[in-house]
Amino acid sequence: MLEINQAGLSWLTILRKRETLRRAYDAFDVGRVAGFAETERARLLADPGVIRHRLKVDAAIHNAGAVLEMRRTAGSFAAWLDAHHPRTPTGWTRVFRSVFRFTGGEITRSFLIATGYLPGAHDPACPVYAEVLRRRPAWSTAGDTPRG
């Protein structure tokens, strides 16, 4: 949700609106957001405290529904991600675009770095890098060969 809203804007803008976005989107509850109808869509588009971009609002609602479908078919969103791992960044973008709305390469890459499916959050020279590796993120799993 935050990645989609950030597209074209600064992270500082999104961070300042994070609590307002959380309230407007029912604490980011996937089931509730997936059930948003025209009334909620109109409310969001009229709310000056959120990002009033029709495509982003529509994407948030659609994508929540996609996550619910993943829970039904794969058991969870994490299981769905695991089933597609490993992939190249281009391969991940293709997969995301086939399911989600408003998810280009940058949004997909940022999300996957933040969730540990792609490297890049910390440089090997960074003092936190060793801690990241101790947690065994998906991208560090030995023997993985990325698919397209």
- Mean pLDDT equals 92
State the domain count: 2
Shape: globular
CATH architecture of the largest domain: Orthogonal Bundle
Radius of gyration: 17 Å
Low-confidence stretches: none
The level of helicity is 55-70%
Q: Which fold name fills CATH's third level, the topology of the largest domain?
A: Endonuclease III, domain 1
CATH superfamily of the largest domain: Hypothetical protein, domain 2
Give the total of beta strands. 0
Q: H/E element string?
A: HHHHHHHHH
Please state roughly what percent of the residues sit in beta strands, choosing from under 5%, 5-15%, 15-25%, 25-35%, 35-45% or over 45%: under 5%
* Number of separate helices: 9
Largest sheet: none
Question: Which structural class should the secondary elements be placed in?
Answer: mainly alpha
Instruction: Give the end-to-end Cα distance, rounded to a whole number of Å.
Output: 25 Å
Q: What is the CATH first-level class name of the largest domain?
A: Mainly Alpha
Question: What does it look like?
Answer:
This protein folds into two domains: 1-84, Endonuclease III, domain 1; 85-148, no CATH class. Helix 5 crosses helix 6 (77-84). The longest helix is centred in the middle third of the chain and has 21 residues, at 54-74. It starts with a helix and ends in a 14-residue tail after the last helix. Helices cover 60% and strands 0% of the residues. The chain is mostly helical. The chain contains nine helices and no strands.
